[in-house]
Amino acid sequence: MHEWNRGFVGNTAKARYEVMARDIDKAMKFMAACGADFEALRGVEFYASHEALLLEYERALTRIDSRTGDPYDVSSHFLWIGERTRRLDGAHVDLLSRVRNPIGVKLGPSTEPDDVLALIDRLDPDREPGRLTFITRMGAPRIREALPRLVETVDRAGGQVLWICDPMHGNGFESPTGYKTRNFDDIVDEVRGFFEVHAALGTVPGGVHLEPTGDDVTECLGGFEQIDEAALATRYESVCDPRLNHQQSLEVAFLVAEMLAARAAS
């Protein structure tokens, strides 16, 4: 476990996570004692992903696979269409309907059930598992109201989509001091709402889309350090979107682990 993970878990305010951390540590030691290739456990397969926003760029990097004859956008493994560019008759949907990459679509709180069905028919007409991901960005106040009808609609229609929660982009606002920021409590609440909806419907919460950094930035309000509006200027380093710092990132990770454990036990 990295030292900054240890620092987080060792914090007295995070005592509730110590049991989980000890279990992880014991499991890793057990595997090492059994002769597992420990260096391999430290490795990870890395995949790239980004929004397919600039069509000239994406078209220029689309290639035909010589073995299958299928087109792939080689700018990234996984591409997604944004909330503002997901029009059925738009060029972004048209391009990604033609490539064979796994693709995603961002869905905001105004999304209607008919919208998701039309997107499935356009982007995944064969209902192919792994092809289409819906990334919900509802905002904490709307997640429990807006998400259930979409999930129910897709489930009834036999859609083979993966559901991912993006609790970052639906909870942004500008602070009185002029900084683009997000509130940690809102981020956590949207993740909780996402898990609650899927638990109630018996469907699968497939993942979480976060924007973290391992640095001690002060870009999102709240968290254990209780970053306030006055502290935003201390280490606000992002030139785009505000990120969770390493303490906030780990706190979210442990909360998600708790929710997964509770789901497995239910």
UniProtKB/TrEMBL annotation:
EC number: 2.5.1.54
Pathway: Metabolic intermediate biosynthesis; chorismate biosynthesis; chorismate from D-erythrose 4-phosphate and phosphoenolpyruvate: step 1/7
Keywords, ordered alphabetically: Amino-acid biosynthesis, Aromatic amino acid biosynthesis, Transferase
Superkingdom classification of source: Bacteria
Catalytic activity: D-erythrose 4-phosphate + phosphoenolpyruvate + H2O = 7-phospho-2-dehydro-3-deoxy-D-arabino-heptonate + phosphate
InterPro entries for the chain: Aldolase_TIM, DAHP_synth_2
Signal peptide location: none
Top EC category: transferase
Pfam families assigned: DAHP_synth_2
Similarity annotation: Belongs to the class-II DAHP synthase family.
Name this protein carries in UniProt: Phospho-2-dehydro-3-deoxyheptonate aldolase
